Amino acid sequence: MARYTESVCKQCRREGQKLFLKGQRCYTDKCAVARRTYAPGQHGQGRHKTSEYGLQMRAKQMTKHYYGVLESQFRKYYAMAEKKQGKTGEEMLILLERRLDNVVYRLGWANSRPEARQLVTHGHIAVNGKRVDIPSYLTSPDEVISIMEKSRKSEKIKSALEANASRPVPKWLEVNRDAFEGKVIVLPTREEIDLPVDETLIVEYYSK
To answer: How many structural domains does the chain have?
Structure first.
């Protein structure tokens, strides 16, 4: 499957804020956004007047980068959200939050979503006791997410657990760090999703 292969720090600089794609580095002075507050490229420091379409495009791109999905996947989530009752933009964000790789990141088992995606694809994560290696798997309430028994001794996983021990876990999830388990309590609400984007701009973009 196609995947973004350039520096992920360019994505943060393009959006003008941290998307937390590099794990612990994002919390230090080495963060690219902190060091260079302008967009990447030859004309990154120039003045740009953003049109209405440009604002809509940036909202879509920021959300894609934040969750690490490609355009085709993103369109599928939007189509799924349109079929649900409620506001399309909010329903789409809830679907993205339910992705297994995002849940693994939210539980504090990985330093970034790309790292969480790698844990899932490499078979380190189980749902209700069965290994699931599909990052886009949509979790549901009452499902138990756990780290596979053999993977709990991994130094990389131990390091991530220690580094993120104090990171707050969203209220729609609960975690038992001693048992290497987490649980989806309920579906998240828009207020519990800390993505700094106006999702109505995305709806306007796709409604054209």
So the answer is: 3
